[in-house]
Amino acid sequence: MNDSLKTLLIIAFLIVILWNLGAGLYYMLVDKGESKRTVNALTRRIALSVALILLVVLANYMGWIKFHGGP
């Protein structure tokens, strides 16, 4: 997998996470607590965030990416 594809995958994850965060805010303002759409959007955001973290850790372990910086 080339570097630009890896970067694009991570950026796509971040965009979807931000989209769900915005959807949660929108549903919170529009529904006024009458539905579970806010909870569902925020649950998806958390699940995607955890999946992204696990994907980055797995990619580092497999050698697909290398962490840099620090002593």
UniProtKB/TrEMBL annotation:
The keyword Transmembrane applies. It comes from the Bacteria. Keywords: Membrane, Transmembrane. NCBIfam families: twin_helix. This is Twin transmembrane helix small protein. It comes from Lysobacter soli.
